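As a warm-up, study this chain.
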Amino acid sequence: MTVESSAFDELFERVSTWGYWGPDDQRGTLHHISRATVVAAASLVRTGRAVSLGHDLDLDPGPDNARPVEHRMTGFASAADTEPSVNTDYVGTDFHGKSVTHVDALCHCVFRGRLYNGYAADEHVGERGADVCAVSQLAQGVVTRGVLIDVPRVRRVPWLEPGTAIGASDLELALSAQGLALRPGDAVLVRTGARARKDSLGAWDPSDFSAGLSPDSMLVLSRGATALLGSDGDSDTRPSPVAGISSPIHALALNAMGMPLIDNMLLEDLAVACADLDRWEFLFTMAPLRIPGGTGSPVNPLAVF
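Now compare it with the structure written out below.
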């Protein structure tokens, strides 16, 4: 399905929250998470089963890992040292990409010169990062109800082929099949089965071909007052269905809606846990590193049942 530029512009305006929380707002859809939301989410913990939603940091280059994580030892424990002696190491990552599980702050994506809420990118982003909409807005973490929308399971396939677009009707069908209804403040996680495909067929470059959401699917999340969107890809379908816009979901989520994105999540273990328990909702937690001016951060989100 292709989307005309004029239709995309109309959709951008429909889901935009610019000014809704005031002209100086930098938190966007995180406002949907109230203290009552957190308390209600905590009540979903019944078994104590916790599931990591983050990938191991990948040190090896590959089609889906053009910028591998750097890890080296900076010191080794020695018996000659004062007891106790220690081992130390360095970890470096250019985490925006197709490998590292990370959260995108609202300053990550610039669309037509603007960040979320109309901030001019050239006035607020420089060599030391961003002075608005940075990842520091998430410094207290995200604790809320999480829901997994497992599209391949609903379709009875192991994964979606790269290039498959998940539309609004697909999301609504999957939610209905799983007995779910979105609630304000949800963290919505969409499984495409990308990791299952990689494990079975090998790696490919998701920059060229990837399953993801179609632009109209954001209407479902907007109506549901969703706080955060995550996926086992980067939520965008590639090739892009919108001419001239390489990452329309990033533009709609980060720029128009003010909704943080979590890219490259590990959702296979979560899908197994949900199927085992016949539950598609859980306590979701995620905390970024406190990086002043940061455009995002590596994360290891957790689902707790």
